[in-house]
Amino acid sequence: MRIAIASDHGGIRLKDELIEVIKDLGFTYEDFGCNCEGSVDYPDYALPVAEKVAQGDFDRGILVCGTGIGMSIAANKVKGIRCALVHDVFSAKATRQHNDTNMIAMGERVIGPGLAGEIVRTWLGEEFEGGRHTNRIDKISSYEDTHR
User: Fold this and answer.
1) Is the sign of the CA dihedral 35, 38, 39, 44 positive or negative?
2) What local confidence, expressed as pLDDT, does residue 121 receive?
C-alpha cells in the first residue's frame, strides 16, 4: 500500500511519528511536507495529497494539523476524496468499514502519538464492508458527479 502524508506547521511532530508507524507496517509513503515550524497554510499541503489520492497515485492519505479540522475540510473539496477527522480507534475502524474513507485527518494538539499510531494501524488494516454501505457511498459519488 502507498500512503501520502502531509502536515502543516501544527502537525509536524505527529506526522513524523506516523511515518515511523507506516514504515513499521511495511508500507511505502511519500511525505508532502511541511518540514518547517514557521506558519504555513494547510490547504497548500492537504490539496496536493488529496489530488494524488483521488488520481490513484496513492492508496490512502493521512493529514495532520493542529486539530485536523482544516486539513479534512480542504481534502474533502477534491472530487473522490472521503476524508474523515479521526481521534479514536473506533471511528478509524468504522470510517473504513462503513464510509470507505481514503483519507484521514488528525490534530497534533488533540491527540498523542501513541493513540495516533493505533488509529493509523487500525485504519490501514480495515477494509470496506460493502453491502448496504455501497449504496450510500454511490449516492455521495453521484452527487459529486452532478454538482461540481
Assistant:
1) negative
2) 98
What are the phi and psi torsion angles at 107 (to 5°)? -115, 125
Q: Tell me the sheet residues that pair with 64.
A: 7, 106
Q: Confirm if 6 and 44 have CB atoms less than 8 A apart.
A: no
Collapsing DSSP to helix, strand or coil, 27 comes out as coil
**Selected catalytic residue, list 65, 87, 133, 147:** 65
- Kind of pairing, strands 83-85 and 28-31? unpaired
| 34 in catalytic set | no
R_g (Cα) of the chain, nearest Å: 14
Which helix (DSSP H) or strand (DSSP E) does residue 6 occupy? strand 2-7
- Other C-beta atoms lying within 10 Å of the C-beta of residue 84: 21
| Active-site residue (options: 87, 98, 133, 147) | 98
**Per-residue model confidence as pLDDT tens digits over 15-46:** 999 999 999 999 999 999 999 989 999 999 99
**pLDDT score of 147:** 87
pLDDT in tens, 132-145: 999 999 999 999 99
The question of whether 83 is a catalytic residue gets the answer: no
